[in-house]
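User: structure tokens for this one?
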Amino acid sequence: MAKYDEYLNDFDEFEDISSKSDNYVDDEYEDIDTGRYDYEDDFEYSDDLDGIPMSKQAKMAIDNNIQQKTENRRVSVLKPDNIDDDIDISSNTPKKKKRLSLRKKILRAFGICFLVIILLLGLVVLSIYSKLSHAEDSHHVNQYISEDQLHTDKNVINILLLGVDAREGETVSRSDTMMIVSIDKSNGKMKITSFLRDSYVEIPGYGWTKLNAACSQGGVDLVWDTLEYNFKIKIDNYMKVDFIAFEKLIDSLGGVDVPITEKEAKYLNDTWYEWTLTGNQLTYDFGDSVHLNGEEALMFCRIRKLDSDFERTRRQRETISGIKQEMMHTNPIELLKLSNSVLPHIETDITSSKMISLGIGAIFKYLHYDIESLGVPIDGTWHSENKSAGSCLVFDIDDTAETLYNYIYNDINPLQ
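Assistant:
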């Protein structure tokens, strides 16, 4: 048997069988690399080792041993030490793992959670949308100016915001607030442009007169047409808010903080009985941050005789900025509750799909945008003049249109 052991250990003549090198021996082991051997043709085998016969089973054991060692050497050549065990060397591709890694499981879980959040947000926004009052025609067409004459940008959304004094039993609403709220996605800003009611403009079909006449003469459509016609800014949608919605919004947020001068506080305290909607006495403090409830904030925004329409619109912009700050610190559940009382008093032409987009954008981006404001006419560009409509603010319409274009679309604030 020592001879057999020596035979097993000494098989150098077979080491290159699989590669067909010069050491190749053309004999009965030629098919080792294919795993084929015709054992049935050999009942008994002898290899000249002192003529000792070898049974077929012994010969098969020797063959298998040689084949295994040859294969091991071949694999060691094909697979360097730096090859990952997870690589299939036959195809040089990663082996499929039966189980996902922990990282992939976490990422998949986050993905599912994100989709659920988006779905819930969509449902919330749809719920909010169903409470709004909608205009019959969702697409406004200005018959007084062509679309190609209006400035527009895919990254800027312009929404006309009208605050109206619509009182019970009255069929004609007076426009108390006229603003364009521009969501500038390129610069991460929300820009509020307020238009003074006494601005001397051309109202299509009515001639030159005060801007506030547009609302009483033709409602939202005529205000929309007038602003586009004079200032060449494309308005995408509108929202009309009455006093009740404004008051309920602020009360639902728990109030709003605004700066009030000593002069403003004294005026409100002396004339509260002219403003109150509840009959309750209103008392105002002054300071850089005074907390007001809905009724108090509404009266603050409506002051006019104390100073000017410029100061009036400034107070309105500061109040809106304060509302935005309060909303940033209000959780989505509370905002949803707020919508139940406020939205029935808001009219809009915004579609459900766009409302969803705006709602998601507001939660994740818009509420964190910086707010800038501008009043029209712009400080230093106007003078007061008596017209047939009374005392009006007269200014250069074309110059103001160019300034508005640069402010809204090119992020150039003329006051900075």
